[in-house]
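subagent[fold] <- orchestrator: predict structure for attached chain, return tokens only, no commentary.
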Amino acid sequence: MTDMSAMSRIGAAIGCRRTSILIAVMAVVGLALVAGLDKIGNDYSYLAGYTILQYAMLATAWNILGGYAGYVNFGSAGFFAIGAYTSVVLNKLWGVPVLVCLPVAALIAGLVGLAMGYLTLRLRGVFFSIATLALAIVLQTAILNWPFVGGSRGAYIMRPQAIEFFGSYARFLFILMLVLAAGSALIARSIEQSWIGRGLAALRDDEVAAECSGVPALPLKLFATTVSGTLMGIAGAPFAFFVSYVDPHTVFSLSIAVNTIAMPLIGGMATWLGPIIGAVLLGTLQQAATVMISSSANLLLVGFTLILFVAIAPNGILGMIKKLRETRHADR
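subagent[fold] -> orchestrator:
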């Protein structure tokens, strides 16, 4: 018993040190990104970086349920819209800043995620996916018929041009999303390496066998839907200030739902790092296509990239790297 306790303490110490190193690396990379964009010196570079980081956060949030637990959620745009329209409502009522909107959006999106999980997690496979898509449609219909937030016309948010200590508001939003994306990655990593992540992985591999082995299936899945919904709502809250005009067509767009699923698939599902790799790769390609071709080419680019990775690396970039390492070890 004493040896087991000692091993547990050693493992916890190693885990804490690795987490500290990861946080330090994230801080260095974040500072380097801010410094690099400051040298470019225009707001578009901040807004392009914001978009990539937004998708990194959405992909990470989706992966907690879709990658770790194996439940494919097609309603990610609905949770994103909850965050965006929470900011619209709060700004219209009291003119509050984005930092106040974040916790409110997190609470509302988390409660909706919990409710969605309670109502739909008894379904499996494609039936669960259809139910989540239905949730997004219901939310979109509600927004379209809500005059207070502009209905189908949308609503405007007046944001300041500059903010103290940060300079331009675009720079502030980029730094804010950088912090949020890094925080979501740390949360996903913590879940993956905890008993919760191991339980979700067991459910993904064989839910019936996991339940027979004592894994608390429903509580774990409810936890995953709640955390996933919360992070998606947080990702959507600054979007209203980012675009300054929110309408149902934008926040419920197909590109949000498709990108949120495609990025973990490209980077590698069931790992905290995969969605970030996929978001950086696909997001950068989309921003380049927007500048050089047109924003309408983005979905075409996503489709082509998905087909390419399904053919070459069906387990994503991380899966391909793992396979190459295993092949090299086998050759030795």
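orchestrator: received. Logging for downstream: The chain has 15 helices and four strands. The longest strand covers residues 155-156.
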